[in-house]
């Protein structure tokens, strides 16, 4: 579902003499002695995007920050084999065509013959083969090549990729996620995680990294010539650190063109100013996570907690008008993988929650406090500073139900440490449900702090493996429908609310959020295709 509001700014200042107010002229140390503020007489050929977080690291594989936005910015510089069209469907990237063999065990790819690296060197099939071998030795956080059996270079722009087991999701998964590396740059790099010089950012994308100010969290990207997928619409793209208040003010004066993510509660200001606003559920769902090796080993206890939490009240109290109730079966409305069959929604039902707990042997004392094995149950609920308001609401609801709750709001490093040590009962975190379903296993069974950390379940793992090797989309959807029912029943985590996201544009361009997310599943309206003519 996409909620789209389109307005045109009544008066856009084509020339912004005070661009320096937003961008400054900070010196960059890393790509040479040039300054971030370059002379650009034609403001219409320059796009300024704000990012409230700032530094995303060097925009090169292996050294950018391990988050979706850093990957998104890097994708402007590094192409993948397969890109996306405006509807989020697979489209030519570095690969002009791809053909799947009848047995599903290989793909023949024809590359764009005129693709070039930013230093002018032609992109060849040898670069692709090198990348796949290199990433087998140096795994990339946003794409695994473990499913590949080998690669054959059959010409300057032709290659065949062999697969260990036939699987349908390779095009929208691996081929769309892996940034292709220039062999002549990376071949001698033994540790790519420490490779952050200017050469590390030589890609084949429509923009090249011209300047990066780590301290200020600012980037300047410059258009490349003759990109095979189209001419860049802007000579320069600036990405600058700026909070919502400053960004709205700078957009009003014509200094800023795009606010990448505006808090939904600030939408009235953007709309009243006449800007184009694109909103969509983020599908980065706020979840209640369980310690499956502690109090919540049995699904009945997890289900009881779900019935004891009033999600509708949480939505009204902590997310008024800026979120919607989440689907409990993992995939969210609008996903092509969501089952048509309804999953258990866990409507607020304290009586049912009480019956489930008592059936497992838990009891309540005369004051209504929950006990197990003769002792009071005290739940340790952990979260970081971003989720304080909903955490307080949930803590109050659980206390009203009879639990003693120890709510701890922590710095991220401490939170991750306690989760890794199993020193918690409940966590509140956000995690994506977007991207190809091939990533489900990591998100459900992985050991990361923002994974469900669910113990291996034969039925669920079997379905995940089966969908990965399905031969067509219909077969995958049928398997994933079964997975969603099991997810809602077992509650690896409890999907609470799906927050909205908003991007604000002036009249230079606008685009809706991409269905299914960008590449690896990033909720964004800023796919690089919108920057091409």
UniProtKB/TrEMBL annotation:
The keyword DNA repair does not apply. Pfam families: SBP_bac_5. Its main location: periplasm. It is found in: Periplasm. InterPro entries: Peptide/Ni-bd, SBP_5, SBP_5_dom. CDD domains: PBP2_NikA_DppA_OppA_like_21 (cd08520). It comes from the Bacteria. The keyword Transcription regulation does not apply. Residues 90-437 form the Solute-binding protein family domain. Keywords: Plasmid. Belongs to the bacterial solute-binding protein 5 family. This is ABC transporter, extracellular solute-binding protein. It comes from Phaeobacter piscinae.
